[in-house]
Write a structure and sequence with these properties.
By secondary structure, the protein is α/β, with parallel strands linked by helices. The protein has a single domain, classed as Double Stranded RNA Binding Domain, CATH 3.30.160. It has 7 helices and 6 strands. The N and C termini lie far apart (57 Å).
């Protein structure tokens, strides 16, 4: 019986790992209403070395265009717009580079840097976009794996508002230039679509808001949604 139970647990772990590899992982705060229509800066991780600069530039432009059309963002500052706003502040430009690098590599929001950057950029949230190709671990049998994630974060508190991510195993054939480009484009589209679907206030919450006293009510029409 004990052996059977251990085999069942091991099988369940394997199934869980396989399912995890096949679906987008979502982490979200229960109430997204306080984080809707907030000015947001888009922080983009460095280009994966396996993808050429032209293909990466095209992909980034498409992601920026798609996100900028979302009404949930009052303003979405691209990296170019961020540099323009900080043009007269070389110290803040340095802070931004350091903050972005630290946040992406460690997942830690440096509050001291964030408290300077938020008013400097005129934003209240940061949205991180990352594409990474890296060697497989013990649970992954291929030569490489691909990770795509979007993380919406409140920088001054360090809290994650919404995160979508997915990683897939790459076979040797997938590492060919055109094949890898296709894999990256498809995975970015899938993970971004999950982010877009999740970054909404559900209808029943709006209904609840409309039942509140007028002095504490958040109207959808005032948010221009």
């Amino acid at each position: 019986m004990k052996r059977y139970l251990l085999n069942w647990i091991n099988a369940w772990v394997v199934i869980t790992l396989l399912v995890g590899c096949q679906s987008v992982v979502l982490q979200s705060q229960h109430d997204l209403l306080p984080h809707i229509r907030k000015p947001t800066a888009l922080l983009i991780h460095s280009r994966p070395s396996q993808l050429d600069a032209e293909a990466w530039g095209t992909l980034v432009s498409q992601v920026q265009e798609r996100l900028s059309q979302r009404k949930e963002f009052r303003v979405l500052l691209t990296p170019q717009q961020q540099q323009q706003r900080l043009k007269a502040s070389p110290g803040l430009r340095t802070d931004l580079r350091l903050y972005r690098t630290t946040l992406i590599l460690t997942g830690i929001s440096d509050r001291a840097l964030a408290n300077r950057l938020v008013p400097g950029l005129g934003v209240e949230q940061f949205l991180v976009f990352q594409v990474e190709v890296y060697p497989c671990t013990e649970q992954c049998q291929g030569p490489e794996q691909l990770l795509v994630r979007f993380i919406l974060r409140e920088p001054t508190s360090g809290e994650v508002v919404l995160r979508t991510r997915k990683n897939i195993q790459l076979e040797a054939d997938d590492l060919e230039i055109e094949a890898l480009k296709s894999e990256i484009i498809d995975l970015v589209d899938e993970v971004l679509s999950s982010f877009e679907d999740a970054y909404v206030v559900p209808w029943h919450q709006w209904r609840y808001e409309h039942l509140k006293p007028s002095d504490g009510r958040v109207l959808r029409s005032k948010l221009e949604l």
